[in-house]
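Continuing the series of single-chain predictions for the mutant panel. This is the parent chain; the variants come on the following pages.
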Amino acid sequence: MDWKIELIHVPVSDVDRAKDFYVNKLGFHADHDQRVSEDLRFVQLTPPGSACSIAFGEGLGGTLEPGTLDVIQVVIPDADAVLAELHAKGVEAEGVDEQAWGRFITLKDPDGNRWTLQQLPVWSTGAADQ
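Parent structure:
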């Protein structure tokens, strides 16, 4: 039986600012932005090439305060290219941190939620077996 992570909630203080950052700075696709009622708004965005989306909004509940999320790690193909693209778009990002298990970039969204981007080492993709 397959288990697939589909949606991760990201705590934000300003929905429009967060949507602008993720769509216009990071290039996420805007899947949904629905105002269900005066007290409920649901926004779902998907990183390019990802099967898992993020969500935030108004009235969704949750226990995390905006800016406290520090657990999302995303695999990227080329850390140098991604870092250059982020800097060109005005995104403050740190890296490239070279480790035996990958090359890493870190960035924060406007609320301070921290993301880690990892370029996998060649050996992890099966290239060592070829």
